[in-house]
Design brief:
Two copies of one chain form a homodimer. Chain A is mainly α. Chain A has a single domain, classed as Arc Repressor Mutant, subunit A. Chain A has five helices and two strands. In chain A, strands 1-2 form a two-stranded antiparallel ribbon. In chain A, a hairpin with a 5-residue loop joins strand 1 and strand 2. Chain A is elongated, with a radius of gyration of 17 Å. At the A-B interface, helix 1 and helix 5 of A face helix 1 and helix 5 of B. Chain A binds a DNA duplex (30 and 30 nucleotides) through helix 3.
DNA sequence: TACAAATAAGACTAAATTTGTCGTATATAA
DNA sequence: TTATATACGACAAATTTAGTCTTATTTGTA
């Protein structure tokens, strides 16, 4: 199945929310989770990952929260997906960080690998081209 | 996660195999499953689905098997995915055959829906553009 | 006609992944 | 010092995917 995971879905919702607030105001995990009826703990972890990967910045403590630093034009869907430790590799053999030999036994002799790699390249461009601006 | 399921992966392997044999010779499920070390029963079911959806044709009995009728240019990745009853809808709310209200509680007020629908349209074009020819 | 080779189809099980929860730690403004 | 917020990892539940098993049907050939 080709689809966004909940993680990605919630990340996009949150990013849209934060982006729409501009670059001055903070949004908190609680605020967003209440607004969209998303599990607070789950969303919190997602925001933490996004912060860790500099998609958003975080400030701890009272009056803290998350906000953007970068321009919405400068953050791509690729970056968001990858910062959540997710992937948009179409097949196991094309995963960047997991060239796990045991993942696919036929990888060596597989005649599908090359054609799919070409499709994958086109998909990479596809996701690189989509930015947070497209969500606003 | 954005990736092909095993079903899709195996379908593509099989389709490539069958396509490379031309339009006269039959390929059997056993032959392909042996060649690629894929579970015979699983592959058989996948080929049955493809046949049911006229991606390939099937002939029962001794000397039977599967082969192509259509030109490899005329079968798209979209069609293959859909014939397996899989989907490439990015979010639950964008699924063609399942406008299941309970799938997403916030679908009505969701501000992400429209931007994602635009991305989805671009993805549809992406998959419509890829044909079996790209696997050969 | 009997048999072997092949597709057809559905129910069931096992494995893997995803989703969500819980507990604890740390930082900070008031 | 307390309330509010992020940070992080372990665990549990739920869902989905992958694979197996069984039975039926079709068809060429010895």
């Amino acid at each position: 199945m080709i689809k966004f995971s909940r993680k990605t879905e919630y990340a996009l919702i949150a990013i849209q929310y934060i982006a729409n607030k501009g670059i001055t105001e903070f949004s908190t995990a609680k605020e967003i989770s209440d607004n969209y009826n998303i599990s607070y703990e789950l969303l919190a972890k997602i925001l933490q990952r996004l912060a860790k990967n500099n998609i958003i910045t975080s400030t701890k403590g009272v009056n803290g929260g998350y906000k953007f630093l970068k321009s919405p034009d400068d953050v791509t869907l690729s970056e968001i997906i990858e910062s959540l430790n997710e992937s948009y590799a179409l097949t196991r053999c094309l995963k960047k960080n997991r060239p796990n030999k045991t993942d696919c036994q036929i990888a060596d002799c597989c005649t599908l690998k090359n054609p799919v790699a070409i499709i994958q390249n086109r998909l990479n461009i596809f996701f690189d081209d989509i930015t947070i601006r497209h969500l606003m």
